[in-house]
Recover the amino acids of this structure.
């Protein structure tokens, strides 16, 4: 995620040094990039004041009212020129040192705190940091909705190519596709609804499929509404549980495969099938418990 600010001046860097272990050293291969792990919003604002100067940011309380759950990048300009350092901010609770798994946290624990992987939690953390490294390159600074969506997909592919090896590439691809299918269908904002386009780029079985940004966003939004409505319809109380949500998805998948899904929504069948497969990938035990309830 890229967050761009335009301060009129840049303060000198002071305060404690960023933390991040060995991965911080790797950042320098890609330019002047800094990584800062923060514990809460107050720590984030303190860092922003040290590096950019909050007085130089228009309405910082509103601009940074709600911080992302995932790593994100902040850039800025001084007199029309990009500032020297690109800053990657990482919430403390998603770092490996926290003991949490970043994918589990970003999926809000809906599928458990300990997931199954094609690789492992450390590799998925590295992948998301390298995703942010791509956002530190000038061609990812700013842009309209279509450009932002394209940049998110591009950053995913860049990060994969940077850290994948012959031994882990297939497993990492499986993790990336599953993660993007789940987040696109259930949590992500429009610019991050890239599950299908990422899968088309990485899965040989996609065989050259393509989709426009508008088509992809519309498909995920409509499918999300369908899932929400079905989950509420089968829920025992007002708010569906995670088990009821997974059950709703598996039931909709069954309808999609049978050709009885209503209403008819472009790309909804492949989203539902991919989403159900993604849940089975990360949470096979949970998925098996629910999938048998027909």
């Amino acid at each position: 995620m890229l967050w761009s600010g335009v301060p009129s001046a840049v303060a000198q860097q002071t305060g404690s040094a960023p933390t991040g272990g060995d991965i911080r050293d790797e950042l320098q291969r890609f330019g002047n990039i800094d990584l800062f792990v923060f514990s809460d919003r107050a720590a984030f604002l303190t860092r922003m004041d040290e590096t950019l100067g909050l007085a130089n940011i228009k309405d910082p309380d509103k601009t940074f009212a709600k911080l992302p759950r995932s790593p994100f990048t902040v850039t800025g300009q001084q007199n029309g020129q990009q500032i020297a350092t690109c800053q990657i901010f990482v919430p403390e609770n998603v770092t490996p040192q926290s003991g949490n798994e970043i994918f589990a946290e970003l999926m809000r624990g809906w599928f458990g705190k300990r997931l199954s992987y094609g690789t492992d939690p450390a590799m998925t953390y590295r992948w998301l940091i390298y995703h942010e490294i791509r956002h530190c390159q000038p061609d990812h600074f700013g842009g309209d909705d279509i450009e932002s969506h394209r940049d998110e997909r591009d950053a995913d592919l860049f990060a994969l190519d940077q850290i994948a090896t012959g031994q882990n590439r297939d497993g990492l691809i499986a993790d990336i596709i599953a993660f993007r299918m789940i987040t696109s269908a259930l949590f992500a904002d429009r610019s991050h609804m890239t599950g299908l386009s990422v899968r088309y780029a990485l899965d040989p079985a996609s065989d050259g499929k393509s989709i426009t940004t508008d088509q992809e966003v519309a498909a995920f939004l409509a499918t999300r509404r369908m899932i929400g409505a079905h989950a509420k319809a089968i829920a025992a109380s007002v708010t569906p549980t995670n088990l009821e949500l997974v059950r709703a998805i598996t039931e909709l998948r069954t309808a999609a495969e049978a050709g009885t899904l209503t209403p008819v929504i472009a790309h909804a069948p492949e989203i539902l099938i991919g989403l159900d497969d993604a849940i089975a990938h990360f949470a096979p035990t949970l998925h098996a418990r629910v999938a048998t309830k027909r």
In short: Confidence is low (pLDDT under 50) at residues 2-21. The chain has two domains: 1-95, 100-294. The longest helix spans residues 213-234. The CA atoms of residues 104 and 113 lie 5 Å apart.
